[in-house]
Amino acid sequence: ASASVEQFAPSNIALCKYWGKRDRELNLPINASLSVSLDYLGSHTRLIPTEGQVDDVWLNGQQLQPGARFSQKVSEFIDLFRRDQNLYFKVETRNNIPTAAGLASSASGFAALTLALNDALALDLPPEHLSIMARMGSGSACRSLFTGFVEWRMGQRKDGLDSHGVQLEQQWPGFCIGLVEIDAGEKATDSRSGMQRTVETAHLYQSWPLQAAVDLGKLQQAIAERDFELLGQTAEQNALSMHATMIASWPPLLYWQPESVAAMQKVWQLRSQGLQVYFTMDAGPNLKLLFQRADRATLLQHFPNLETVEPFGC
Ligand code: DP6
Fold first, then answer.
1. Would you say 90 and 48 are in contact if contact means Cβ atoms under 8 Å apart?
2. Which of 53, 71, 127, 187 is most open to solvent, judged by the fewest CB atoms within 10 Å of its CB?
3. What spacing in Å lies between the alpha carbon of 140 and ligand 1's midpoint?
4. Please, how many CA atoms are within 13 Å of residue 202, restricted to the half-sphere of its CB?
5. Ligand 1 pocket: which of 26, 191, 219 to mutate (most atoms within 8 A of CB)
6. Cβ < 6 Å from ligand 1: which residues?
7. Is residue 163 a contact partner of residue 152, using CB atoms and an 8 Å limit?
8. Burial class of residue 85 (count of CB atoms within 10 Å of its CB; 0-12, 13-18, 19+)
9. Is the C-alpha dihedral spanning 138, 142, 145, 150 positive or negative?
10. Where does the Diphosphomevalonate decarboxylase-like N-terminal domain start and stop, copy by copy (predicted)?
C-alpha cells in the first residue's frame, strides 16, 4: 500500500426507508429498504498512505481536527480494515452534494471509502462483502455500492453477514429525481441518534416495520411493471409514515422547516392538476421529487432551482 487510490460512490435516495436498528454496533436494520442511486452525485474519496501515527481526514478541502466526530468515525471505520497497525492514511473526501443536509452524503462517503480501502489494501473483496463493510460505517452506505435500484436485505444473522445491498436488475429510463434544497446546513439530530430515539420512545414505531414490509413489496411490483403512480404513492406515503414516527418521539423529532411543508403542498397542488410528481424526505428538511422525464420542463417552472438526476439515462 504505497500509491494513492481514488474511488467514487453515488449517493442514494431511499424509496422505502431504513429507520431503526436491531444492532447499533453493526448497523443492522429493523426493516429492509429500497433505494435508487444518484448516478454522478456522490463522494470522491482519495487515500494516501502517510508516515503519521493518525489518519488525517479532509472533507471538501478542509482538514478536520483528529478529535472531530466525523474524523473519529472515519478512523474507527478504517480500523476495521487495518491489519498493519502502523498504516495510516490521509483521507480526502469531496462531496458534490450538500453534506449532512439529509442528502445521504454519509452513505456515498462510506461507500467510496470502502472501495478505496479495498484498493489500497489489495483486499479484493466481492461487492456483497464491500456492501457489508460499508454498512458498518453507515447503514445506508451498503446501498451506495451499487447503481440503479438497490434493495438492502435486512438479514437475520447476528453477525450481519446476510445484511447487505443487492442490485435490482430492472432499469427505468426516464425516471427522474429532483433535489429541492430547503436548507443545506447541518441537521440538528443525526440519523443514528434520531432512529434510536424513535425506536425507544415512539409508540407509533410499532407499526413501522409492518408498513415498510408492505411498501417494499409494492415498490418491487411498481419497478417490475414500471407503474410510476404506484412507485410515487408508495414512496411518498412511506416517507411520511417514517416522519410520523419521528414526530411521535420524545423529545419530538421534527426535521421539517416551514419551507418543507410549503414545498409538499406545492407538490400536492401540482398533482391535483394532473402532474405525476411525488416526493420523499430523509432526516432533514429537503425534498426529493420523483417524476418522469416528460414532466421535467413543467416541473422546473414551479421549482426553478431543482437539481435533477436521471439514474438510468433517457
Ligand atoms: C432517513 O444510514 O445515515 O436517510 O446507519 O446511523 O449511519 P446510520 O444511519 P443512516 O440513516 C439513513 C436514514 C434515512 C433513510 C434511508 O436512507 O434509508
1. yes
2. 53
3. 5
4. 26
5. 191
6. 14, 17-19, 27, 33, 104, 106-107, 138-140, 191-192, 282-283
7. yes
8. exposed
9. negative
10. 9-161
Residue 175, beta-bridge partner list: 292
Give pLDDT, residue 11. Answer: 95
Ligand 1 atom closest to the Cα of residue 106 is: 3
Alpha-carbon distance values, 229 to 117, 163, 302 (Å): 40, 29, 20
Report the complex ipTM.
0.99
191 Cα: distance to centroid of ligand 1 (angstroms): 6
Cell of 158: 447476528
Nearest residue (by CA) to ligand 1, atom 11, is 191
Q: For ligand 1, atom 1, name the residue with the nearest CA.
A: 282
Distance CA 93, CA 100 (A): 14
Q: 274: left (phi > 0), else alpha (psi -120 to 50), else beta?
A: left
Encode pLDDT of 1-40 as tens digits. Answer: 568 999 999 999 999 999 999 999 999 999 999 999 998 9
pLDDT by residue (tens digit) across 243-278?
999 999 999 999 999 999 999 999 999 999 999 999
Q: Are strands 175-180 and 307-309 parallel, antiparallel or unpaired?
A: antiparallel
Per-position DSSP letters for 156-195, written without gaps between them: --TT-TT-EEEE-S---TTEEEEEE-S--SPPSS-HHHHH
Condensed to tens digits (0 to 9), the pLDDT of residues 210-236 reads 999 999 999 999 999 999 999 999 999
